[in-house]
Design a protein that fits this description.
155 residues, alpha+beta, four-stranded antiparallel β-sheet, two-stranded antiparallel sheet, 26% helix
Amino acid sequence: LLDEDGARRIVDARDPATHRSLRVPRLGTPRPHGVSRVLATGEGGSEVSAEPWVPRGVSRERTFQQDLEDPDEIRRELIRLTHELMEDLERDGRPVIRVTVKVRFVPFLTQQRSVKQQEPTREVAAIEAGALEALGRFEMGRRVRLLGVRGEFRS
């Protein structure tokens, strides 16, 4: 409900005859704290849909107990992650259009690089090659704390 000055009020539905209500304070901006209020009151610009959510991609990542320094070891770990990712991609059944690699360098700098596939693919070799090409786009002068790989699908 709105009161006379346009502020929203939540009415006690158990006893509407008494019109007990709680005034909901208006926040200066709907973000970040007002997001829940905006969504709950239906003010957001998003449409509500009954359609099931369909992921745009799947990813795997790993944080290492000991930082990786050796470039060969980093490549081996990325290949291992890519093969783990392939299990998820096979379950989904959709072809990959882009491969993204995430690297968190020490102390805490996180960067991503991506490679668009020549054509949508489910082939392990093509996805692995895309991940290695994306890894090659990083300036690898620091120790690596985390590696991640993501396969993105066509929308």
